[in-house]
Specification:
Catalyzes the phosphorylation of hydroxymethylpyrimidine phosphate (HMP-P) to HMP-PP, and of HMP to HMP-P. Pathway: Cofactor biosynthesis; thiamine diphosphate biosynthesis; 4-amino-2-methyl-5-diphosphomethylpyrimidine from 5-amino-1-(5-phospho-D-ribosyl)imidazole: step 3/3. Residues 31-278 form the Pyridoxamine kinase/Phosphomethylpyrimidine kinase domain. It catalyses: 4-amino-5-hydroxymethyl-2-methylpyrimidine + ATP = 4-amino-2-methyl-5-(phosphooxymethyl)pyrimidine + ADP + H(+); 4-amino-2-methyl-5-(phosphooxymethyl)pyrimidine + ATP = 4-amino-2-methyl-5-(diphosphooxymethyl)pyrimidine + ADP. By secondary structure, the chain is an alpha/beta fold. The protein folds into 2 domains: 22-278, UDP-N-acetylmuramoyl-L-alanine:D-glutamate ligase (3-Layer(aba) Sandwich), CATH 3.40.1190.20; 341-424 and 444-543, Heme oxygenase-like (Heme Oxygenase, Chain A, Up-down Bundle). It is built from 19 helices and 10 strands. An 8-stranded mixed β-sheet has the order 2-1-5-6-7-8-9-10, with helices on both faces. Strands 3-4 form a two-stranded antiparallel ribbon. The chain is elongated and about 85 Å long. The two termini are 31 Å apart. The structure holds adenosine-5'-diphosphate (ADP) and ligand LCLJCK34. Adenosine-5'-diphosphate (ADP) binds at residues 129, 156, 193, 195-196, 202, 204, 218, 220-221, 223, 226, 229-230, 233, 255, 258-259, 262.
Amino acid sequence: MTSSCPTQFPPSSTLPAAASVPRVLSIAGTDPTGGAGTAADLKSITAAGGYGMSVVTALVAQNTHGVRDLHVPPAEFLAAQLRAVSDDVTLDAVKTGMLGTTEFIATVVAWLDDVRPAILVVDPVMIATSGDRLLQPEAEQAMVAFCRRATVVTPNIDELAVLTGSPRATTEDEALEQAARWSEETGVAVVVKTGHLDTLTVTNTWLSPDGSRIAVPSTRVDTTSTHGTGCSLSSALATRLGRGDSPADALAWATDWLHESITHGAALRVGSGHGPVDHGHRARRLQAAASSAPWIMPDAVPHLLETPADLGAPQAGDHGRNVTVPAPAVAPPGPWTAALWAAGAEITAAIADSDFVRALVDGSLPQHAFAFYLAQDALYLNGYARALAALAARSTDPDAQVYWSQAATGALTEEAELHRGWLGSADHTGAPPAPSPVTAAYTTFLLATALGEDRAVGVAAVLPCFWLYAQVGAALPAVPAGHPYSAWLDTYRDPGFVTATEQALAQLESEMAAASPAVRAAAARAFLTACRHELEFFDQALRLEPGGGAALLATETDRPELAGSAR
Ligand SMILES: Nc1ncnc2c1ncn2[C@@H]1O[C@H](COP(=O)(O)OP(=O)(O)O)[C@@H](O)[C@H]1O
Ligand SMILES: Cc1ncc(COP(=O)(O)OP(=O)(O)O)c(N)n1
């Protein structure tokens, strides 16, 4: 049935506003394997924090290898779907993908004339990466005209050439120049995407009609799992704009989220061609991080540790699965520290595999995450220095007193260096950084343990910071020239740090040997707890949203750069 029903309900504009969850409509074709089109759009809108809705233009029989067949319902049915949504729901943003034919473009245009959403993101889908046409050749000029109505268009390099009537750009500069000319002429912003160019860095650049540019670079992921990346980027962008983000924040969020989704796409094992991206990776990672499951289960460490063997096989962490014990970069000096290393194997492996360490090493760690990490590191070092000083105060052996006091001084010196160098260029006009919940929990645990527990327990608590940091440092590969974090990575390679770790290990080995079985058990728990704090400390920077802040729906006047958009 394609006849229109009378409107029976008030549109939701007359209902209370939907606060911070933007209502986003995707108008696109389908992909039954879920990688592109409507499926990708809905997953992306959800991932970006919106409520997704879907109007279908064409049913596409496709998979990760390409398109097999198309079924296009009558244009009246497209119009009926559009009206069914807009008669009932207020839209904060609309994203269009595959429109297919001139007739369908005209149908959407007629509907937009009525509805006029504040944000219209047009992904001018023409040809899939598989080479299959998703827009009839005779509809290209209608699509070019349609793009003039957008808030922002997100063409790939080939689509940009059609849009601007130019030859296919072969460099980023050429693409930017084509887009700048078109944007100035039409008054519509363009996101220039270099995914289809042969570049090491993939950059998304928001080009405004006044010539201003916001470039968001990311490292190129070596993968074939890029099916539907264009659909996903434009839907996430529409959602973040619909939520009230500035173009800079919206593009940074969408690019950063998509990079994570592409990185983990291959692990989904969906299809044997160009596979989809993992739209849900970020949500699952954050969900796991929010788990309130205890870090160390009661049976992880026996109440009495008579011998190192009582600590048993690796069992720390959430799952207690069989774990291969990684070779320690700084060797344990005796059986107690060897047993502790084995017990913490799952956490050590998780740090090495963590998204944070991977992104720091391959250079894809977003700048805002790196800045956050440095600021938290400085705060942590201050707390850590106090815990080390407490151990110096509680030591009676002169060598131990010297060692812990020097370690405390070393941590304070590092903190001062961070402020002078890495953090020195930061904006000092705002409030000083405050400790995150993760940093506060870790430093509070260290101080409480160093001050309030037996000394051996305190020594066990401060050891992972030395040992696991040295472990990460030893595993670092050489990085290419121009790597954004090469200077920081060099700080991990400091040989003085390995010496300090060896000394801390020697302290713990002798403390464990001299301690009672009950104190040893408490020390083992403190060691494993601190290992877990280390993992959280690394991971926390990737839990922060670029731009952060509250999710507020902004009005057009809050964002003059979008004023007059979505005509
Ligand atoms: N190999 C890759 N590595 C990192 N990011 C990528 C990669 N391929 C695509 N992207 C991201 O996906 C976005 C859209 O991809 P692109 O291939 O340019 O568009 P389309 O899918 O429309 O052809 C890019 O702008 C970029 O953010
Ligand atoms: C129904 C449908 N719409 C769009 C595409 C193309 O997706 P895109 O995100 O441009 O990326 P590729 O799949 O071409 O890499 C599609 N395949 N199907």
